[in-house]
Amino acid sequence: MRILALSWRDLAHPQAGGSEVLVDKILMGLQERGHEVALVCGGPTGERPYPVHRAGGTYSQYVRAPILCATRLRDYDLVIDVENGLPFFTPFWRRGPSVCLVHHVHTDQWETRFPAPLARAGGAAERHLIPAVYRRRLFVAVSPSTAVALQEMGVPPEQIRVVENGVDMLPGPAGTEAPAPVFVAISRLVPHKRVDLLLDAWRRVQPVTGGRFVVVGRGPDEEVLRRQAAAIPGAQLAGHISEDEKQDLLGKAWFLVHGAHHEGWGMVVLEAAAAGRPALAVDAPGVRDAIIDGKTGLLVRADETSLPSALAKAWVQLAQDRALRTRLGEQARQRAAEFSWERTIRSWESVAFEAVASQGRS
């Protein structure tokens, strides 16, 4: 089968995150299973083991990608239409089969990224236009939370397939905790990840536990967060680090801390779990799918006003209970082993065959 993915960004983009990792894993995995794959996205782009076609910039690609697909790339059997706030609306311009990949519903995010008029228009398009345009297409949700959000938008459950992301399991035993406390957050530095909330909580935690809180990641909020971190002892913004450095840091960490308002699927939570580390996180869509509360990590529930103090309290409690960290970490690693990329790719291949077969009959 020939499969083409339409995505907002390539892995080479400086703000690439979990969405780009997932698309790359899907295409690589399907290619290894004998399918011909390619990617169309906005720039910048880099070299991959499959063709990558640049279709303009952040916004122009939504006009240029359909033209590119209708001319040079029209012979693909299936298009994976990746929704990042808005998808590419393939049913408008493509008669052949497509599926809509949804990480999470962006409704709450529009207001943090755009002026009010654009935010209202974008949110309305996501809530109302997507279910109507894709009424004869399959949706792939990366978590049960995303599937629920799609149903709340009006997508019938029979159109939704849930395919959770995989995680890479490293051979050998889990690493050994550092003697002094090390806590880690791995995140794009954007508003909905709420790294500012984590730093606010760390301000309260550090006088009790001591140690370091290391934030890994880049993003548009970096300078603001650096100024916030500079005033807090033990807080460090590490920026981008290599995969080996990340694994070394997770191996030494006591646990991962995660403050996102919402996720599609907590990919970094499973990465920490694969390293034998539990996660302390705010109870939020997507995150609650990646963490089994009380078994593979802890979820904090509180209103916005009391959330920093509630998060800090749970942070201190987990830091002071090594036996609990050990138990949660062992169970987290066992669960992470269930989410192999082979499992994810096999499920995606099944959805691809189903989409081509069903849309070919319609």
Protein described:
- There is one protein chain.
- Helix 6 links the parallel strand 6 and strand 7.
- The protein folds into two domains: 183 residues, 3-Layer(aba) Sandwich (Rossmann fold); 155 residues, Rossmann fold, CATH 3.40.50.
- Helices cover 43% and strands 17% of the residues.
- It is of the alpha/beta class.
CATH topology of the largest domain: Rossmann fold
Specify the CATH architecture of the largest domain. 3-Layer(aba) Sandwich
**Please, what is the average pLDDT?**
92
Helix content: 40-55%
Brief summary of the model shown:
By secondary structure, this protein is an alpha/beta fold. The protein contains 14 helices and 13 strands.
Features:
alpha/beta, six-stranded parallel sheet, 14 helices, Rossmann fold, single chain, seven-stranded parallel sheet, globular, 13 strands, 2 domains, 362 residues
Write the layout of secondary structure elements.
Blueprint: E1 2-7, H1 18-32, E2 36-41, E3 52-54, H2 61-71, E4 78-83, H3 90-93, E5 98-102, H4 110-113, H5 116-133, E6 138-141, H6 144-153, E7 160-162, E8 182-186, H7 195-209, E9 212-216, H8 222-230, E10 235-239, H9 243-252, E11 255-258, H10 267-274, E12 279-282, H11 287-290, E13 297-300, H12 307-319, H13 322-336, H14 341-361
Parallel strand pairs: 1-2, 1-4, 2-3, 4-5, 5-6, 6-7, 8-9, 8-11, 9-10, 11-12, 12-13
